[in-house]
Amino acid sequence: MQMSSAKAIITGAASGLGAATARGFREAGAQVTIFDRDAERGQALAAEIGATYVTVDVTDEASVAAGVAAAKAAMGGVNVLVNCAGIAIGEKTVGKEGPHDLARYRKVIDVNLVGTFNCIRLAAAEMAGNDLVDGERGAIVNTASIAAFDGQKGQAAYAASKAGVAGMTLPIARDLAQNAIRINTIAPGLFLTPMLMGLPEDARTQLAADVPFPRRLGDPAEYARLVRFMVECGYLNGETIRIDGALRMR
C-alpha cells in the first residue's frame, strides 16, 4: 500500500508515538483521522497537519464504532489502523502497602490489550468491504513494548498487556488473511515521549546509557518510519519487531 492511498486511523495520536505517526503519514500524503480522549491536543494537532480528530475511548465499543464511521465519512474509507493508545503504571505484585491493586491491573489490560483488540475488530470489519488494491484491503499496526519480553519489576500489568498485544498478532493475521488484511506489531524500547520528557535530564541520560547502540533514547519519528514501512511492505504480516537499540531490560 502506498501512503498516497492510505486512509488511516491512528489511536492515541494526540501526543507521543501516535502524534509522530500522524505527522509522518500526512507528510507522506496519507489521509489521517486521530482517535484520542484529549480533545484539546487532538484538535490542535489535527488543525496543524490537516487531519480529522474524533474523541474516542478505545475501551468502549460504541465509541470506537462511531469513530470508525466518522473516519470513513471524513476520508472516504478506512484502510489503515495504527494502535498507539495506551497507559502505563508502576506497581509491584506485593508492595509496601500490600498486594497489587486489582482495579488498576484491570484498567491497564482493558486499555492496552482489550482496547487494541476492540479497534482492530471494528476497523477490520470496515476494511473487509474495501476493494482490493495491490492485492490487499487494509493494513494494521499495533504498539506493544519490549516490556512484553523483558519487563522490569513493577511492570506486571504493563508487561502482561503488551505481551498480549504481541501474542495476538499472529492469530489475528491468520484470521484476517481471508479478508486480505495484514497486521503487524512494533515493540518500542525507550522513546522520547511525553512520559520520558517529564523526567529530569540526568534521569533521561541514565536511561539512555543502558542502550547499547545508538546510546540514546529513540526519536518518535523513527517509530513512525517503521510504521510506514509496515504499511507499505505488502509481504510483511504477522510479525512483531523490536525497535530499541538492542536494549534488553533487566
Distance between the termini: 38 Å
CATH architectural type: 3-Layer(aba) Sandwich
Q: Strand order, biggest sheet?
A: 3-2-1-4-7-8-9
CATH topology label: Rossmann fold
* Radius of gyration using CA atoms only: 18 Å
Characterise the protein shown here.
The chain is of the alpha/beta class. The protein has a single domain, classed as NAD(P)-binding Rossmann-like Domain (Rossmann fold). It is 46% helix and 16% strand. It has nine helices and nine strands. It has a seven-stranded parallel β-sheet, sandwiched between helices. The chain has a two-stranded antiparallel sheet with strand order 5-6. Strand 5 and strand 6 form a beta hairpin. Helix 1 packs across helix 9 and helix 3 runs parallel beside helix 4. The longest helix is centred in the middle third of the chain and has 26 residues.
Throw out a few tags for this protein.
single chain, 250 residues, alpha/beta, Rossmann fold, 7-stranded parallel β-sheet, two-stranded antiparallel ribbon, 9 helices, 16% strand, globular
What's the SSE blueprint?
Layout: E1 7-11, H1 16-27, E2 31-36, H2 39-49, E3 52-55, H3 61-75, E4 80-83, E5 94-95, E6 98-99, H4 102-127, E7 138-143, H5 147-150, H6 156-176, E8 181-188, H7 194-197, H8 201-209, H9 220-232, E9 240-243
Parallel strand pairs: 1-2, 1-4, 2-3, 4-7, 7-8, 8-9
Antiparallel strand pairs: 5-6
Helix pairs in contact: 1-9, 3-4, 4-6
